[in-house]
Write a structure and sequence with these properties.
By secondary structure, the protein is α+β, with helices and mostly antiparallel strands. The protein has 3 helices and 7 strands, in the order ααβββββββα.
Length: 197
């Protein structure tokens, strides 16, 4: 009986050890890919931008808002971001003419920065881009088609984040137009930000 118990314990331990080593690409004993990255690969930024005390509503001037066809009055909201895991002052602007959209211009800091858009963290197609010389990403949601995001790396744990969403009219604004709008807003906001921070 004791011999059977020893064999059973040995088999269980062996099974536990085998379960810890996953197979990769059909090669027995090879360690599997660790999974999606938790950081965003990016080129170096030209400098860090101090944004902790910057009002995000200052980033789009009245002229820029008119050029971007954002006719609503900007309003600031300061909260803690679940996505960026830190403070996230946000300027919200709704627009009604010529199309209904809602735009959020945020300056999250003391959090994840653009690493919030790492493959392991978001269910989006994330592509790199450069805005005013700073590295960034565009995130196109995989399951939703009513918004698009752009994030620009401003320093350790700091970013400019743009959310560009459909405003609820029928027909809805197509997602490719929302994504193009997010990039346009990010470019305009960064032109101002590099002068202020």
């Amino acid at each position: 009986m004791r011999r059977v118990l020893v064999v059973l314990v040995g088999v269980a331990l062996c099974g536990a050890l085998v379960a810890c080593v996953r197979e990769s690409a059909g090669v027995p004993g090879a360690v599997a890919d660790p999974g999606p990255a938790t950081t965003v690969e990016r080129p170096p930024r030209p400098r860090d931008a101090a944004i902790a005390d910057l009002d995000p509503c200052l980033l789009l001037t009245e002229t820029q808002r008119a050029d971007l066809q954002l006719d609503g009055e900007p309003g600031v909201n300061v909260g803690r971001s679940a996505l960026f895991q830190g403070p996230e002052p946000t300027c919200n602007i709704r627009s009604y003419e010529p199309r209904a959209v809602a735009v959020g211009v945020s300056l999250p800091y003391d959090g994840l920065g653009i690493d919030a858009f790492a493959p392991a963290r978001v269910d989006s197609r994330v592509t790199p881009l450069t805005i005013e010389g700073f590295p960034g990403v565009q995130a196109v949601p995989a399951r939703l088609d009513d918004f698009c995001s752009v994030a620009v790396d401003l320093g350790p744990g700091a970013a400019l984040s743009i959310q560009y969403a459909d405003g609820g009219r029928v027909p809805a604004v197509p997602q490719p137009e929302l994504c193009a709008g997010a990039v346009e807003v990010a470019r305009a906001a960064m032109r101002t930000l590099v002068k202020l921070a």
